[in-house]
Design goal:
Blueprint (H helix, E strand, L loop, with lengths): L1 H6 L3 H15 L1 H15 L10 H4 L3 H13 L8 E3 L3 E4 L4 E4 L4 E2 L3 H4 L26 H4 L8 E3 L1
Antiparallel strand pairs: 1-4, 1-5, 2-3
Family: Belongs to the cytochrome P450 family.
Protein name: Cytochrome P450
GO molecular function, one term: iron ion binding
């Protein structure tokens, strides 16, 4: 199974591989999630489906998954052609991109911004008090850009 997951370029497989890796590399950060899962699933038979109701009882798992997706996004760069004009203002400049511009946002760099304090640090606790800073759509899903676009 792990060989199949590792060879997959599909996003679900990529996310599972990233979660396995993050659990190993960041073992101390994964510990609360492991303990929480053990407690919540303790009296469940192994063939019982894990529903959204059960998952909602595991905020540490949710936080660990969000942090894994932030630092190890399951998507790879994709090219998009903007279908509308986009204006992006930053303190140092405003960037204007006309409709038809082809862009290729890089998911691995997307979440290293000031929106995430200590962005280079793996810290699931940033999500335990709530959803935390949003994950960028193009970094966590194959479609979605924050602007209208068509994949090229």
């Amino acid at each position: 199974v792990l060989r199949q997951l590792a060879s997959s370029v599909e996003q679900t497989g990529a996310l599972l591989c990233n979660l396995i890796t993050a659990s190993s590399v960041h073992a101390a950060a994964a510990k609360p999630s492991r303990e929480e899962q053990a407690a919540v699933l303790k009296d469940m038979p192994p063939d019982q489906p894990i529903t959204s109701v059960i998952l909602n009882q595991m905020p540490a798992l949710d936080a660990f998954v969000r942090e894994t997706m932030r630092l190890y996004p399951p998507c790879r760069p994709a090219r998009f052609a903007l279908t509308t004009d986009v204006q992006w203002s930053r303190a140092e400049a405003t960037i204007e991109l006309p409709a038809g511009t082809i862009i290729a946002p890089e998911p691995f760099a997307a979440h290293f911004t000031a929106a995430y304090p200590q962005a280079d640090r793996f810290d699931p606790l940033r999500y335990e008090a709530g959803p935390g800073p949003p994950l960028l759509p193009f970094a966590t899903a194959g479609k979605g850009l924050g602007a209208d676009g068509e994949e090229r």
